[in-house]
Fold this sequence. Notes:
The complex is a heterodimer of chains A (302) and B (419).
Chain A: H1 4-36, E1 39-40, E2 51-52, H2 56-62, H3 65-98, H4 103-111, H5 118-129, H6 137-144, H7 161-186, H8 190-198, H9 205-215, H10 217-232, H11 236-242, H12 255-264, H13 270-295
Antiparallel strand pairs in A: 1-2
Chain B: H1 3-27, E1 40-46, H2 53-63, E2 68-74, H3 78-85, E3 94-97, H4 102-106, H5 114-117, H6 126-129, E4 133-134, E5 137-138, E6 141-142, E7 144-153, H7 154-159, H8 168-178, E8 184-187, H9 194-197, H10 200-204, H11 221-235, H12 251-254, E9 258-264, H13 268-275, E10 279-282, E11 295-298, E12 301-304, H14 311-324, H15 326-334, E13 340-341, H16 344-349, H17 356-368, E14 369-370, H18 378-394, H19 398-418
Helix pairs in contact in B: 8-11, 11-18, 18-19
Amino acid sequence: MFGPQRRNLWFWVFVGPFAIGLGLFTYVPLVWSVYLSFFDAHNTVSPAGSDFVGLGNYAAMLSDPAFLGSLGTFALFTVFIVPATYALSLALALMVNRLRCAQAFFRSVFFLPTACSYVVASVIWKLSVFNGVRFGLANTVLGWFGADQTAWLSTTHPPWYWLVLVTVRLWLQAGFYMILFLAGLQRISPQLYEAAAMDGARPGWQVFRYITFPQLRATSVAVVLLLVINAFQAFDEFYNLLSDARGYPPYARPPLVYLYYTALGQDQNLGLGSAGAVILALIIAVATVVQARWFGLGRKEE
Amino acid sequence: MTEIDRRRLLAAGGGVALAAGLTAACGSNTGRGGGGSGPAISQWYHQYGEPGTQQAVKRYAAAYKKANVSVQWRPGDYDRQTAAALLTDSGPDVFEVNGPLLDQIQGGQVVDLTAEVEPVKDDFNQAVLAPKIWQDKIWGIPQVVDMQLLYYRKSLLKKAGVRPPQTLDELVDGAKKLSGKKAKGLFLGNDGGVGVLGGTPLFAAGLSLIGPDGKVGFDDPAAARTLGKIRQLYADKSLLLGAPTDWSDPAAFIQGLTAMQWSGLWALPQIKKALGDDFGVLPFPKDGSGGKPSVQVGAYGSAVSARSKRKAEAKAFAKWLWVDRTDYQQDFALSYGFHIPARISLAKKAQQLQSGPAADAVRLSTDHGYAEPLLWTTADRTAYQDALSRIIKDGANPESELKAVVRKVNAELQRVKKK
Lengths: 302, 419
């Protein structure tokens, strides 16, 4: 009744639709996009009727200061957000882990923002917390100390918009990584701490430095990898905080926003946009592989 | 229940779900037809903020007897929605468009509407009709004229001893005098005017985006000088930045956060209601000896998709609504929002536009109105806005920034003229 043939059939009944969906909505567009990137395809997704330009779109993209600038924006964002989220989520996890009571409550409190959408959070940050007039939350608080009102998202010197971008993402994602670290912390054997205490290790920094932190290595590697990939995919908060009906400022424009305007915006330059997407995909792939090898992801613990 | 029973149940449940999904897909609202008589045509509009507009356009569609027209009212990023929909067969038959853009025309995405417009061509406001013409053919029917202008609060200017600015230098000085800790002198949008100003300062300097000869219109030292003065406004801290709503909304002006605001004609009724007679309107002031005041005008156009399976019927409907039914055009322009009818004869008849600041606005649009030319592509606009942002906010050298834009525009002109 449950022979291999029948099992095969059930396998395809359940897996087939997803496999077809994956092929149709992921791999076909991927291959199509690579193909399209060799054509001057304006306002069309079909290479038929478009001029073949070979690697012209790639050359145009790689010599475009706006695209290169967007890669710089991404690098800068990663430099800010990865260590900040790492440190904050680890600190939260350590604090919550030490709690003797109400641990579940605080775990939920810090995790809850994860459920909020990036769009909603961005709108709250933009209109309520960091709006540039005197009744914005940040300006009101600073006003108590006599500070002038600051246009947080419109000022490039100093670049206060980074504060808005980084804090909204920190608020949204620190709770999720805190949960990962909490799981990691709870896997550390109590005997290690007991042995350390017997050997005279002082609780606090010394125990953290020599026991906790090294024991969290596998979790740390996974967290950093996820953070970098997430940073690459940054779009929602950038777009919703900084764009308006007339466009997007040239500063703090990550690659996905730039490609959105090139390929899907009114520009509708789908050949050029596809070339940019291929370049970006290659950069992400190389960065991920290099990082994974550097951290020794998947290597057996010695 | 045995294991096989559960599996059968799951399979049966899956089958029902699949069938239900397919049925729902077949019966979903595609916007094509409502089951009435005549061929089915879908018509798309972007979401207007003014109450009553949606009901009005549905009423017009229902009054058309030769086809069954269904209206789709589309919130969100309408320009991008239509741009994407035009690549597929599921897009609209008739749609309003902020254009059509040159790439859309050259890409064969919209159909020629010359025959429909030709009999009354001269009655359309020529400033907004011109960008809809390519190679002597008309590709969109202007619906209503929108314009941008400078609102100023009379009492605040009087109190500060500032006269309504007639030159850009006066605007810079006046905005500085009007700026204090609680309110600023001028609001050009939360980005300092980068998005909304467009070519307006260049026109105020007596230049243009693309000249009548089809060449770059701002390859001139006057352009850098004028944009330098916009930077001065920013550097003087005379600009309101980071307001809860942007330039298109008069809230900042009404709430007293700014003494002057660059906004649209659509804001006029709201401002009048809030401030009574305590406001006036001006064009963007001229700059330099060759300068002239300028206001940007534009018009959403009604276009027909080239992918429509009912092109003839869609063209006939577009003609009926935007050429023949002048009563509906008048109603659409002035009964809900506040726009100038695209037809000169209708604009002249409109009671609401014949006195006070509204009459001033109509005069400004006639005397000083300019529209972005068809040859000004999206890539040009992006390059120019990026440069403007660096000039205004970062204090970048206007000359070198504009030189880079001129190179980009020249390359774009070559590209589009090659087709």
